[in-house]
Amino acid sequence: MDFNRPIEISKGVFWVGEYIENDPFQCYPYLIVNGDESMLIDPGSMLEAKAVVKKVKELISLKQIKYIILHHQDPDVGAAVPAIEKVIDREDLQIVTRSSVRIFLRHYGIKSKYYELEKNNYKLKTSSGLILKFITTPYCHTPGSYITYLLNNKLLFSSDIFGGLETSWKFYADEDYFEDAKKFHELYMPSRDIFNYTLQKIEKLDINLIAPQHGSLIKKEFIKPLIEKMKDLECGLHVEKTYHAKLVDTVKKLEEEIKENQKKDRLLMEQSKLAQMGEMMNMIAHQWRQPLNVVAASALNLSLLNSIGALDDEELEKTTSFIQEQVQKMSETINDFMEFNKETAQDEIMLSESVNNVQKMIMSQLINRSIKLEVDLDNSIKVFHNKTSVEHSIMNIVGNARDAYDDYEGDKEKVIKVYTKEDETHISLFIEDNAGGIPKDIINKIFNPYFTTKEQGKGTGIGLYMTKKMIEEVEGSSISVESENGKTVFQIKFKKV
Questions:
Q1: In the listed set 175, 205, 239, which residue is the last one of a domain according to the structure?
Q2: Is residue 293 part of a domain?
Q3: Is 495 exposed, middle or buried (0-12, 13-18, 19+ CB in 10 A)?
Q4: Are residues 220 and 354 in the same domain?
Q5: Residues in Cβ contact with 91 at an 8 Å cutoff, skipping those fewer than 6 apart
Q6: Which of 200, 217, 239 is the last residue of a domain?
């Protein structure tokens, strides 16, 4: 191999490091070539910066790098970033990392914006369909450490995990690599329990290649045998026993806390579904009431005409056709509600279609309350999200506006407005009412779970909480609210397709 050139290790993924002779601590930067959303992973220290930039430029323009992924804060990972971001010279350049790592990175003088994993559901999806998943590896070897899984290539960028110390350097690991990895992990991993917690996460992934920050790259055939050997490593030889025990306890508590939070979220989701089911049943009852009355009246009329001998074939045909029409409308109503509740995946959706679906569900209730729904949308607007989540979120907000008008005593016309605005990067959907507004002392609480201003039995306090979770589960989407002078405006912001 020519280590003076970039080396392709997987389709569109390149090693762009520098081989330093007789250095047991080789540091590996990687480049994912992905058009104007290319990514540089752990660019390294100033020792390799010149070589890294040279190799990247052989493949792409530096301005095509949109993301720099930093797995932890050590200088062998990120010290070169300030110099590299200057030569990239891109305003929307983002540093991908965890919030706890960002605290330390600022001391390097990094100027770029941050893509914080906690705020993006530990995922990154580019416009070309490239998907990266980020997996936390606490205390391996820093508290905020994580690894990156490139789903499209089944490639794991493992940071310090599977690193090795070796003077007789091999680019690809062989069956003897365990001895090199053992030396590194005995020094840098705090305990076997903590390290095994991370190995359990890695075992669940389908991996074709592991690309660590140090040591050798590990091909598929060596991955499983290496993991099995590393499970028995005695790590943390230079960590005091008391601190070792605290670290283990901390990881266990973190794991328990994660499970408890997941359990709470599942419970809230079930409560939200039950509340929405009740709301749906109420809406179906509203939309069925009139056609049911008409069908009953028509059937009664046929019976009366028949009893007095006045029912002729023409009247029978006319009335039965009318009854069939009403039954068809009722059937369509059920189909609409079933479609509304169908589970969907994240995809491009027509925003006007989602608003129209909500309108069909709730319109009869608004008419009964003399509430006008004014919709002003461009039928061509597309956003990337989950169709079911978007429609349920719109339904929750419009439903809250409907309920707010029940207590409205003002003289203004009852109107709910739905409209959009857009800028260079986002489409915003606005839902506006003038039903009296939200008091300043509670507006910051309305997205909290179980918070409600409705009478007991009329509200669960989880609708807006779940709305926020559903909207913000997709990268680039957010929800906010403003209320002033009796008017309330919810804004749902979507990333442009």
A1: 239
A2: no
A3: middle
A4: no
A5: none
A6: 239
| Residue 245 falls inside a structural domain | no
Model pLDDT for residues 365-379, shown as the tens digit of each residue: 788 788 999 999 888
How far is the C-alpha of 98 from the C-alpha of 133, rounded, in Å?
Answer: 13
d(CA 97, CA 83): 18
DSSP one-letter code for 187:
H
If asked whether residues 37 and 172 sit together in one domain, one would say yes
Amino acid identity of 379?
N
* Residues 354, 469 share a domain: yes
Q: What is the CATH number of the domain that holds 419?
A: 3.30.565.10
In 3-state terms, what secondary structure has residue 230? helix
pLDDT digits 0-9 by tens, 27-56? 889 999 999 999 999 998 888 888 899 999
Amino acid at 84: I
Q: What is the pLDDT of residues 218-227, one digit of tens each?
A: 999 999 999 9
83-103 pLDDT, tens digit each = 999 999 999 999 999 988 888
The CATH number of whichever domain residue 217 belongs to comes to 3.60.15.10
- For 377-475, list the strands marked E by DSSP: 382-386, 415-422, 426-433
Whether 93 contacts 112, CB under 8 Å = yes
Pairwise pLDDT comparison (70 vs 324), residue with the higher score: 70
Cα separation, 428 vs 421, whole angstroms:
5
Q: Exposed, middle or buried by CB within 10 Å (0-12, 13-18, 19+), for 344?
A: middle
Domain span including residue 406: 345-497
The CA-atom distances, in angstroms, between 338 and each of 26, 284, 348, 362, 400 are: 58, 11, 21, 14, 22
Sheet strand arrangement including 30-32: 7-10, 13-15, 30-32, 38-41, 65-69, 94-97, 113-116
Chain segment 327-376, per-residue pLDDT in tens: 776 676 666 556 555 566 678 888 888 888 888 877 877 887 889 999 99
Q: Does residue 306 belong to any structural domain of this protein?
A: no
Number of domains, the chain: 2
Whether residue 362 is found in the same domain as residue 492: yes
pLDDT for the residue 341: 57
Say if residues 416 and 358 touch (Cβ distance below 8 Å): no
pLDDT at 473: 79
Please name every residue paired with 12 in a beta bridge, in sequence order, or none if there are none. Answer: none
Provide the H-helix boundaries in 133-205. Answer: 177-188, 192-203
Q: Report pLDDT for 128.
A: 94
78, 235, 276, 280, 352 from 395: Cα distances, Å: 46, 53, 9, 10, 14
Residue 456 pLDDT exceeds 60: no
Query: How deeply is 272 buried, as exposed, middle or buried, from its count of CB atoms within 10 A (0-12, 13-18, 19+)?
Result: buried
Does residue 233 share a domain with residue 352? no
Instruction: Choose between 163 and 242: higher pLDDT.
Output: 163
**ω into 141 cis (within 30 of 0):** yes
Query: In this structure, is residue 290 part of a structural domain?
Result: no
